[in-house]
Amino acid sequence: MNTQNDHGDADVLIVGAGASGGVAALELASRGFRVVCLEQGDWALPDDFTGGKPEWELTRLKQWHPSPNVRGRESDYPVGTKESPIEPLMFNGVGGSTILFSGHWVRALPSDFRVRTLDGVADDWPFTYEDLRPFYDEVTHHIGASGLDGDPAYPDPHTFPLPPMPIGKYGLAAAKGMDKLGWHWWPAPNAIASRKFKNRPACLRYGACESGCPTGAKASTDFTHWRDAIAAGAVLVTGARVRQLTVDNRGLVTGAEYVDRAGVVRHQAAGVTVLAANGIGTPRLLLNSASAQFPDGLANSSGLVGKRLMVHPYASVYGTYEEELETWLGPTGQSLQSMQFYETDTSRGFVRGAKWNLMPTGGPLTHTLWEPGEDWRDAFGPAFHTRLRTTFGRYTEWGITTEDLPEDHNEVVLDPGATDSDGIPVPRIRYTISENTERMLKFHVDRAIEAHLAAGATSVHPIPVVRESGWHLLGTTRMGTDPATSVVDGYGRTHDVPNLFIIDGSVFVTSTGVNPTATIMAVALRSMRHLADNRHNQPAAD
């Protein structure tokens, strides 16, 4: 195969066009940098999604399934999961996993950045909630998040540019149950336009957020960042699967080798390289970039590249109600959220906590599919009609996002016996749920059952761990001040390679107990603004 370079040298090369990559491209291109981004997927248009079409629930099972192992698109790479109870979920394309995310727009809480100080576990982050707050504010108002100011779970009444989405009949029922118990709830913030915002229409409430928004109301970064970044001069190359980063004899990254869809190996040169490929894709690329200078993988003198994977083990507790609650109505998107049991209370037998989100439960097929391990006679025949009649529109979920603490044995490694369609070694994850998290899950599931019963549920159906829930891929190139115990510094620059930055969720020190996209984007903005502000002191490859 030939090696070619068609895009000229870049000041900054970004690998990955998702949440953090979009933030980086817009910030740097707007500041006058020559930016090139390599993305292995392609663009998707609202009409590509099936949320407003009859085939919607069927396409969710394959074409728009969140697992790359099930979806199997040309742009996907397989991930070995035999050693994990959680299936990793992601999407490769412009917008990355924001294309299929639920849009929960939740800030971490102040305690999340100080867990070592407060609870004696894991490590503190190298900055605080207050340090990150202005970047949360800026990103929230840039993307058009919807929410209600003044949530008492937070120390600051942070604002939203749009009012919250309606909580709906099922939200009202759940809120009454929480009030009866005296527990916190709040209209949930979402990265979804409740009214027209910039180039995006208001949500039409299809409830199809997790398989792509058919109207463009959801704040995926193909809408919120990439169009503006390209207008500012950024070059976005799709269908470009990066196989390794290249280095010079000084140990600086000179760019990346990638394979285009014609099978041609190309090289993109850059003075500075930024990785934004998620908590699995980034360590995979660093490990695949091993060389004589970096025999254990690029930027891996600490031995922590791929280590301390955190995935937020997720539990679902479903409640069935007598009354019609319109639980097919979107967004999906959360209706309510609760931080009642978020902070540490050692009397519960574990440290840290979890965020709850109230979710709708989709269309009729969702309620009638035969589940693995279930007797098919309980799914078909007369049972089919009974199940549909008693659950459709009457079935709602309290989802539980548990904080996952970092452990070295939870890791991303290269699979020695498997490659993707371009012959590049694929990642394998080794992950176990900790004893602390097991106790946390049990406690929260029991409390969510109480919440449903208080709200009037006639029956409950708990799922203690949802296998296909690994959206939050965090911690595998953690940040810190000590090069011996971290991969990047507080601004995402790798300790070993001064012109290589990492800005995705892999830099998280701890997982927090909330959906991470708001934090990923705020951290990316903070890092890239620091890079831009200090460009004259930034080492760069020739």
Task: Tell me what you see in this structure.
This protein is an alpha/beta fold and 542 residues long. Helices cover 24% and strands 17% of the residues. The radius of gyration is 22 Å and the shape is globular. The model has no long low-confidence stretch (mean pLDDT 95).
Key terms for this structure?
alpha/beta, 12 helices, 8-stranded mixed β-sheet, 542 residues, 24% helix
Q: What is the multimeric organization of the chains shown?
A: single chain
Average pLDDT value? Answer: 95
Total count of helical runs of at least 4 residues:
12
Task: State the secondary-structure class.
Answer: alpha/beta
Q: How much β-strand is present in the residues?
A: 15-25%
| Rg result | 22 Å
